[in-house]
Design a protein that fits this description.
By secondary structure, the chain is mainly beta. The chain contains three helices and 31 strands. The structure holds copper (II) ion. Copper (II) ion (CU) binds next to loops.
């Protein structure tokens, strides 16, 4: 029974967890040649949150009694008509005239966002993107609007409020429109269009979640000078070019999946599924092993999506570097050149990534993070078991119960996992 992620996320069971390192320490005043001094604060030795703020975005819908409304039977996805930030409706945030880091998580069930910063007159303002998913980028990227942000993607940005006046108001604005004019409804299939700032603020969209979604109020000067900075080099990517490519794999994310197993716990029904290396599109069974890269090796994986959809695909355990979109390295934007773990495929798009499978054996998941697609049943299991010692092969499938976990043999091991 693993098909309740969308409902749990929708109810608010989604959270953020900051991770620090020697370079990214959460203290902006320590200048030791290693610490990047990103906006954060200085009171504590690390992990200051004064100027390092998490923003959890999620759309909701309410019924006539003011209760959260959800439709579990729309397998395209669920789109709400009310934005929340950190689960607050119509929020504002008071800022000082200095730099802030915002860590932005799209914690929606099915909605994509596309954020930009507007000043009081509605003009787009500069944003510096410094991280994508779990890693700082090799270099910061200055943008007037962020890319579309799929479900579970994390974008870290720095906004410098020092050039604005006390009393001024700015807004984070959503430019991503999910209203499908053909079906005349909000659709979870994919973003219908991305609007300009003028269109988004001018009410051109029939999507109620397009437009201003977070207000910044510039209220005072900082008590002490802003010593934070955004260096030209953040964290370079690991160079994998000298590691041979052990194998290439191909995953096709599509509809009309079939199911070949019937385990009452591990096997689930579509309509969504994944085809591995040109095989059948299969609905999720986490007892089935679909791929088994060898420990320590590097592989190249290409992920492909169907035409009417956009799927943000989350690969667990190992982060990848994006090599190409639609077959071309030139299609990979600067803000996707760090290490990632959620990859928007875009409609009928492909994305090619490379990963080295380090540190641990074990079983891992790969799934669409449109959580309605994930629940119905766009998910597969892959594992690092090296065909035997020192690992168990295949790894037994854990069966969680309220009384504890038992284990059973896999229901299926695909030829692509041999
Ligand atoms: Cu999907």
């Amino acid at each position: 029974m693993f098909s309740f992620t969308s409902q749990n996320v929708y109810k608010g069971n989604a959270a953020m967890f900051n991770i620090y390192s020697g370079l990214d320490r959460g203290n902006e005043s320590i200048n030791d040649g290693v610490n990047l001094q990103l906006p954060s604060g200085s009171a504590k030795s690390w992990g200051n949150l004064d100027y390092d703020v998490n923003l959890l975005l999620a759309d909701k819908a309410f019924d006539q009694d003011g209760q959260l409304f959800f439709d579990i039977f729309d397998f395209d996805g669920f789109i709400g008509d009310v934005n929340t930030v950190n689960l607050a409706f119509n929020p504002y945030f008071e800022v000082e005239r200095r730099k802030y880091r915002f860590r932005i998580l799209n914690a929606s069930v099915s909605r994509f966002y596309k954020l930009a910063l507007a000043n009081a007159s509605g003009s787009p303002q500069a944003i510096t993107q410094i991280a994508n998913d779990g890693n700082l980028l090799p270099h910061p990227v200055v943008l007037l609007e962020l890319d579309e942000q799929g479900i579970a993607e994390r974008y870290d940005i720095v906004i410098d409020f020092s050039s604005y006046s006390i009393g001024e108001k700015l807004h984070l604005v959503n430019l991503c429109d999910h209203f499908d004019p053909v079906d005349a409804k909000l659709t979870g299939k994919k973003p219908f269009q991305d609007l300009t700032m003028a269109q988004a603020l001018g009410g051109a969209s029939l999507d109620p979640c397009v437009g201003r979604m977070l207000e910044f109020r510039v209220v005072r000067n900082p008590a002490t000078p802003d010593v934070s900075r955004v260096a030209d080099t953040l964290i370079p990517n690991p160079d994998l070019s000298s590691i041979p490519v052990a194998r290439e794999r191909f995953f096709d994310f599509d509809r009309d999946a079939i199911q070949t197993t019937s385990d009452p716990v591990t096997s689930f029904r579509g309509p969504w599924g994944i085809a591995t290396d040109g095989g059948t599109t299969l609905a999720a069974d986490y007892g089935r092993v679909s791929a088994a890269p060898r420990f320590g090796t590097r592989e190249i994986w290409t992920l492909k999506g169907g035409g009417g959809w956009d799927h943000p695909i989350h690969i667990h355990f190992e982060e990848g570097q994006v090599l190409a979109r639609n077959g071309s390295a030139a299609n990979v934007p600067a803000w996707e050149r760090g290490r990632k773990d959620v990859y928007r495929l875009r409609p009928a798009g492909t994305i090619t990534i490379t990963m080295q499978f380090r540190d641990w054996g074990g079983m891992f998941m790969e799934h669409c993070h449109n959580t309605v697609h994930e629940d119905n049943a766009m998910l597969l299991r892959w594992e690092i078991d090296d065909s035997g010692a020192p690992f168990l092969r295949p790894l037994p499938t854990p069966i969680p119960t309220p009384q504890g976990v038992t284990f059973e043999p896999p229901t299926d091991v695909l030829p692509t996992a041999l």
